[in-house]
Each structure stands twice: as C-alpha cells, then as structure tokens.
Design a protein that fits this description.
There is one protein chain. The protein is α/β, with parallel strands linked by helices and 256 residues long. It has a seven-stranded parallel sheet, sandwiched between helices. Helix 3 runs parallel beside helix 4. The longest helix is centred in the middle third of the chain and has 29 residues.
C-alpha cells in the first residue's frame, strides 16, 4: 500500500513564538510546513526538520503582494500541495493614541490586516482553481472585542481580521474552503514576553485581567490550532475561537 501523502501547512510569522508553536503542533500531527517570516531563525527551522518534517522557510514581508506571490509559488513548487494556511504574522507596539504616527498606524494595517488579505486571497485562488478544499486560520486577539490602552492600531487591525475571516468564510464556503480565527489572550510571547520580563507592573496588571489566573503560553494557542487543522473542525467556518483564559470577561469586570 502506498504511503499516504503528508499534508502541508503554511504559517506566516512562522518562526516567531506563536507561529513556531503552531508549526510544532502541525509537525506532531504528521504534517510538513512552510514558514514565511520577515526574520530568519535557522535554529527553529532545523529543529522542525529534526522532528522528521519537510520544512520550507521563505523570508517574506506579507505587506508586499509580489513577495507573497513569489513565496507561494515556492511552496507549491516544493510540496506540490497546500492544505492549511495560517495567517499569523503581526506587529504591535505600545504608544499612546495621541502619539502614534501615520506611518506606525499604516504599518499595523499593512502587516496585521492587509497581509492576511494578500496571503488568503492568493492561496484561495489557487485552491479554487485546483478544486482543493483547504483550511484558513487567522490569528486574531481578545482585543478584537475589547479595547486596550496603548495599542489602538493593533486592536483595530485585529477587529478587521475578525471581519475578514467572516467575509472570506462566506464567499469561500461554496468551494469547500473553511476560514476561522483564533483569539488568544495575554500570551507570554513576542512583545508581551519582553514586557512581562522587564516590567513587573505589567505582569500584575495582566494577571488582574485573567480569570484563570495564569499567563497563556504559545503552546496553549497551538492546541487550538491543532483542533482547527484536524478533521474534528471540518464543519466549522466563519467563527472565532476565543481562547483567552477569560480575558474578555475579565476586562469587562475589572475595577475601573
């Protein structure tokens, strides 16, 4: 009996903390992975290969449509297929609303929202042409529902991601393509990890918002990605799985 061909997952922001944890989950599920990221991390790529997976890394700015197109061509050339597209690349910075520059605002929209559009549309076009029923996963955030200080453009971009997921899910469903988002909470990854390490007052404030009483880890998010990748989610589309330890309800009830 011929060996079943391994499925392939693509992750933007793939060598960052959340992207890498999701890649580890996909590899553990028997998948190969394509990692698109603006920053290289050869150690993480090699670690996935050591687990027995085929791994493609491409250095890509997802805000650049041409670069996205070229990277996706390399994915299909390498693997001959793509089954899961996880849009995860994003930026965030802490700046008071009155001090954000137009350039900083636009950068958030270009990467956090437009980048999702570029990747998803290009992948979906190929899937529709090939008659392939793939899965799209967006990394949203609990702040798509709840405003939070100092990160206005991040909140707005993530709210846009949520609406983009629903619109894409509606139009791609007739082609058998599902589109869903995950909304993590306060994850010890990226900028938040640095804040937790360098500013104890941030940890105290964050903890006051989390009813479950512990900071989320990247692996917690990857567990939800694993569900959406699996056949168990085949009838799920156009929704957000909020996996935030209760941040949304915690923020609503926090003392003012």
């Amino acid at each position: 009996m011929a060996q079943q061909e391994r499925k392939v997952g693509l992750i933007t922001g793939g060598v960052g903390d959340l992207g890498y944890a999701s890649a580890e989950k996909m590899v553990a599920m028997g998948m190969d992975v394509a990692l698109l990221d603006i920053k290289p991390n050869a150690q993480r790529v090699d670690a996935l290969r050591d687990k027995g997976a085929r791994v493609l890394y491409a250095q890509v700015d997802v805000a650049d449509r041409g670069a996205v197109q070229a990277a996706l061509e390399s994915v299909w050339a390498e693997f001959g297929r793509l089954d899961v597209c996880m849009c995860n690349a994003g930026i965030s910075m802490n700046v008071p609303f009155l001090e954000y520059t137009v350039e900083e605002w636009n950068q958030h929209m270009d990467v956090n929202l437009n980048g999702y559009f570029h990747v998803t549309q290009e992948v979906a076009k190929r899937w529709v042409a090939d008659g392939h029923k793939g899965k799209v996963i967006f990394t949203g955030s609990w702040v798509q529902d709840v405003p939070y200080k100092l990160i206005a453009p991040y909140c707005v971009s993530k709210a846009g991601v949520w609406m983009l997921a629903r619109c894409a899910a509606l139009e791609l469903a007739p082609h058998g393509i599902t589109v869903n988002a995950i909304a993590p909470g306060i994850v010890e990854a990226g900028l938040t990890a640095r804040e937790l390490r360098d500013f104890p007052e941030f940890r105290e404030e964050f903890m006051s918002l989390i009813p479950l009483g512990k900071i989320q880890q990247a692996s917690d998010v990857a567990d939800i990605v694993g569900f959406l990748v699996s056949d168990a989610s085949n009838y799920v589309t156009g929704t957000t799985i909020t996996c935030d330890g209760g941040c949304v309800v915690g923020a609503a009830s926090a003392p003012k």
